[in-house]
Amino acid sequence: MRINEVRTVEELADFITVPTEGLVEVAGRLEGDVMVLGGGGKVGPELVETLARADRQAGARRTIHVADLFPDPADPQRARLERLGAVLHAGDFTARSFLDDLPDAPHVIFMAGVKFGSSADWRKAFHLNCIMPYLVGERFSASAVVVYSSGNPYPHTPVEAGGCTEEDDLEPQGVYGWGIVARESAFRTTALQFSGQQSCLFRLMYAQHLGYGVLVDLARMVLDGEPVSLAMPAVNLVSQRDAIDLSLRALGLCNNPPLVLNCAGPVVRVRHVVERLAVHLGVDAKFAGEEPETALLANDDLAVRVFGPYRDGVEEMIEAAAGWVNRGGECWGKPTLFGKVSHRY
Q1: Domains of the chain
Q2: What's the confidence (pLDDT) of residue 114?
Q3: Residue 202's CB: how many other CB atoms inside 10 A?
């Protein structure tokens, strides 16, 4: 099945969690349990299911631990994780006592942090994006840790240049951008302190899902006849299932000092995306504002060289988003705000 053939929530859940042969191979090589910190959010349950499916195919026997606040016992995401056989740990990562009580794990996926609302609450933003990551890095000092990070602190560059590479200097703007730098710096610090810790700073741009994402945001605007701003003239497009797959395979690449890895997808002009969405939706495309020559973009040539091409193509993702929105598919109500040129979230 291709992403543009998905029609139901059930088909979507199955589609997103299909592991690649490369991930199955990695799952067969990894020894020991996996701890997913912050696994109760938008990405965590699908990541856990993808890993569980890869483990079954590889014949790997391990426990997948998932730690998060889990404030609502009736949360369907929590129930989904329990059905997958994951062992759940409910608590606050900012509390050393909770971290100390978590079981050791040789492999860790770190997904916790805060983006939206960070500009309005600096204390919370830096606590969760700087202090808490250091505590986690200190606690799992002998583990391989894939740190979910972001390309947000990259400088805006000419669209035709293809985006920033892992070697480019960061130029963070806004509280969230500095928070990302702080998160990575926390794990760079623990890597210096603990030679047994290995890590990968996984700089993910906007992952595309049919429940949320840049494409769904734009499709809803186009269908509603709302003019689309071109203030952010281009965007990287990668599917959530490809991002999940790469982040899990990155467990096999963790290093000390940390490996930095962009996961982004091709660079696509927003004008092109909107025009293609309009064709699929049978409406006219409307635009607003000037179209500058620079945008927040990342170059992921390294990831493509290491892991091979992504499974989901740009035109398939655009068609899928248009069809999903046009049919009234389930939407999570979590806008990406990718067009925030000011980087205030």
Answers
A1: 3-209+240-266+297-310 (3.40.50.720)
A2: 67
A3: 26
